[in-house]
Amino acid sequence: MHILTLVCCTAVLLPVSGLNALANPVDESPQQPSVSLTKERTTKSIGSSPIVAQTDNSWTEPVDSSEVEKVKSQLQNIRSRNFTPSRGAPALTIANPYGFGADRGFYSSLSYQTDTRFGNESDGDATMGFGAGFGDAKKAVGAELSYTLASFGNNRDFGTGGFNAKLHRQIGEGWGAAIGWNSFLSIGDENDLDDSLYLVTTKIFKTRENLNSPFSRVAGTVGVGNGQFRTQDALENGDDGFNVFAGLAFRVAQPVSFLTEWTGQDLAMGLSVSPFRTVPLTVNLGVRDITGAGDGARFVAGIGTGF
């Protein structure tokens, strides 16, 4: 039985989710003012005597001084904003879902594993995911709709994969909760993605005020789910009960986090890195099946971006 590594990019892609949760982001989307400039008088200085040119007001509306001041204020606010694209944030988990999500923009990811569980030796496999966020997780509810494309490797037909849905809510500072349904609609005969329901929450703790300080944040995630989150015994016996999954993320440096998690079946550990200052790109490197299920440790890697 092949179990695919499903790497979700929602923590990876903070510019799309509005969440750079570990970095405490501020929404910096500027409101562009509509500016209409009508000069009524122009002055040229020749020597010490100004020459004033008077235009005819009959073809234009008179200028409202209060509106001019308002436009000036808007332009000054825009000028003071930082338009440099933000870097991505290190992920909160390796394979588990977490309590935050995207509520705007689009994201995509690519993941690879060197070996599938209980598969042939060196039968590497890859999946690709892409999705979009909607709503407002702070004021109401955010929503994600994504598709996991599992057409790489193992001779699957192109397009084979599954649709995923997620509703999430930010219920406090650095605290989010979500409910989701992975692979609620599967496509392709050779699809081995598990139909999985889950409920999860994530809390981020500030261990230091400055994000640039080592070990400035710790994030804890805990949830329950069925399907892909079941124990190995439950999978083998066909039991469809719910099981617990959990994880910890340590922000060891601003662009790097150390991750460890229990997926419900196995222990996984790895690193998540956002290597570029102005590119929202996150790279995950990890090892799964360290203990518990499986026939040996497996190397997994993922890369994600959003806009």
Query: Outline, from the CA principal axes?
Result: globular
State the CATH architecture.
Beta Barrel
Rg value: 26 Å
Question: How many beta-strand runs?
Answer: 14
Q: Helix tally?
A: 3
Structural class: mainly beta
What is the strand content? 35-45%
The H-and-E topology, N to C, reads as HEEHEEEEEEEHEEEEE
| Sheet with the most strands: spatial strand order | 3-4-5-6-7-8-9-10-11-12-13-14
What is the CATH third-level topology name? Porin
Number of domains: 1
Q: Which features would summarize this protein structure in a list?
A:
single chain; 307 residues; mainly beta; Porin; 3 helices; 8% helix; disordered N terminus
How does this structure look, described?
The chain has 307 residues and is mainly beta. It is built from 3 helices and 14 strands. The protein has one domain: Beta Barrel (Porin), CATH 2.40.160. It has a 12-stranded antiparallel β-barrel. Strands 1-2 form a two-stranded antiparallel sheet. A hairpin with a 2-residue loop joins strand 6 and strand 7.
Give me the secondary-structure topology.
Layout: H1 14-17, E1 41-46, E2 49-54, H2 65-80, E3 106-113, E4 125-135, E5 142-152, E6 161-172, E7 175-187, E8 196-206, E9 217-225, H3 232-237, E10 243-253, E11 256-262, E12 267-273, E13 281-288, E14 298-306
Antiparallel strand pairs: 1-2, 3-4, 3-14, 4-5, 5-6, 6-7, 7-8, 8-9, 9-10, 10-11, 11-12, 12-13, 13-14
